[in-house]
Amino acid sequence: MDYMYSGLILVVDLESGETEEVDLEEEFIRENLGGAAANLALYEEYKDRDPMILGSGFFTGTLISGSALGIATAKSPVTGKVAHSPLAWFFGPELKLSGYDFVVICGKSEKPVYLWLHDEMADIKEAGELWGKDTWETTDFLRNELGDDRVQVLTIGKAGENQVKNAQLINNYWGSGDKFGFGAIFGKKNVKALALRGMGELELDDPEAFLEKDMELLGKVKESVSGKKVEWLAEKAGISLEGLDPFIHRNTACFNCPLPCRPYVKYNEVSTVMSSTRVAEPGVLVSDLYGMAAFNKKLDMEVSLRAIEKCCRVGIDQVVAGSLIKNTELDDVLREIDSMVPGESDTSDIKPWDKDFDYGAFGSFCPPLTDDWKEKVAISYILGICPILLSAVPELSKEVLVEMINVTTGWDTTVENLDSVVSKLIG
Description:
Blueprint: E1 8-13, E2 18-23, H1 26-32, H2 35-46, E3 52-56, E4 70-75, E5 82-87, H3 91-97, E6 102-106, E7 113-118, E8 121-126, H4 135-146, E9 152-155, H5 158-161, E10 170-171, E11 174-175, H6 182-189, E12 191-197, H7 207-225, H8 230-237, E13 248-252, E14 262-266, E15 283-285, H9 289-296, H10 301-314, H11 318-324, H12 330-340, H13 373-383, H14 387-392, H15 398-409, H16 415-426
Parallel strand pairs: 1-6, 7-12
Antiparallel strand pairs: 1-2, 3-4, 3-6, 4-5, 7-8, 9-10, 9-12, 10-11, 13-14, 14-15
């Protein structure tokens, strides 16, 4: 396909243990563009089979700035409604380049399984020996089993296995943008993990024109975010990160993003150590800024960071855990988080980003930074661009993004077409 997709939808029937490849038609992408809008259309098509949809955005995995986003769509155990969770870091590009643009996971497996997608091949493998392992152990096991440290893993911990309402999908070792309990859906389906390795290619209508316009856009984006890091995002979101700086080892960003808003922190060794050491687990990636802030309101920073690691290992939403803990000593905090894994907690009073705000079907991964927040997030979830970057950079306007769609495809898509897709998604 000469437009940013490999051309296949994978349908996984967990009950029969079989998979089916369905052609991704151009008309389907013209109508939905991609990402959450395409996911929603597939959800409606397969809704009688209790589906979870994992999809890539139109620009996911490309040279467009911030094109890291994959999207999970399902009926949320938290809200009881269909919702969309962003999956950043490197998950989205790996999904698209594995040869499958969208994955429809239907039904429930009789026994624990994991899915292995690579080179336009899909396998359903037994995962009995993985059930009960934490997410870090699972990621290490699968990378060793599959023989590649670059395998991207979407997995659950014990919270997901126990189908706790606020169980979170974990991307490798770190938390994801899942604010809707999708980890519990994996647990319900007896899916321990999804492993991905992408070596595919994407074709486009006019590569030279695309590259020229993209390089011009990249220069503007870099200028707009120059010097901005996690402290900038915290200030914009109105939260405090007291005591974080001494623990920051490096500031990192997701795939192809010039905004390094994800600090990797160390607390098991000095944060300034740059060479490899014998410390097996030196620290954690801060992938949920408000989750860290929720802990840091009650705990000193080191305890907060160690609590984040615990949440990532057991697979529970950091915002929920940080908002509910009552103790302040590390051992007590870790025991409290463990106590959340078998049972349910009342989360009705939790206010992400300390705001009364309707996040709708999109969740609170991206703080409400702009007045047109829902539109910005909808566009990002459709096109596969990080909503935080899209909110921070005015140069990534609807007009510019539509122009890039047309350069990629040779179509004549308009801003009105994009607005129409956004309206369907917002509802």
